[in-house]
Amino acid sequence: MQGETARVGVLAIQGAVDKHRSALERVGAETIPVLHAGDLAGLRALILPGGESTTIAKGLTRLDLWDPIRDFASSGGGVLGTCAGAILLARSTENHPVPSLGLLDLIAVRNAYGTQVDSFTAPCDPGGNPDLAEMRCVFIRAPRLSQPGPEVEVLLTVDGEPVLVRQGNILASTFHPELGEDDRLHRFLLDL
Length: 192
Known about the structure:
With 192 residues, this protein is α/β, with parallel strands linked by helices. It has one domain (7-191): 3-Layer(aba) Sandwich (Rossmann fold). It contains 5 helices and 12 strands. The protein has helices at 17-26, 53-62, 66-74, 84-89, 184-191; strands at 7-11, 30-34, 45-48, 78-82, 90-94, 104-109, 120-123, 136-139, 144-146, 153-158, 161-167, 170-173. A hairpin with a 2-residue loop joins strand 10 (153-158) and strand 11. The relative contact order is 0.17. The model has no long low-confidence stretch (mean pLDDT 92).
């Protein structure tokens, strides 16, 4: 794909769709709103944005997108789930569970950091990832990622808790990388 513009889908059911589209445009990607299985054709990657996980899950059912997204990921397409999107990628969910895609071997605990008024920004600990150093993470009704399986690599933590993980071509962040001007996570998705 050298020289070609990467086509990246953003699940457009609900949530921070426009913010992700802006970040993708800043890194030179063409963005495609995804609302139908056919929208996944020809994409390099897909973003499941933050928003409200129950609403997005109901939309996935209504639009019959559960299996097409699983197929996209299993065929090697990169997937990034942010906040609610991370919840939907988990093998299971807790704290008012919602259906999930089961693409990440971990449990997502919904609203683990509190309600909307408990939102906060914090610096991350990149561990051995200097490319992600000094990233500030914005948490809004964020989930907690627990019991990661052996294939799950923790890329960033805040206060010892995983906030960015990777399992193969799947990335999940409990924070909102699309809020602000730091586009490193969107670039990372394109490089998967």
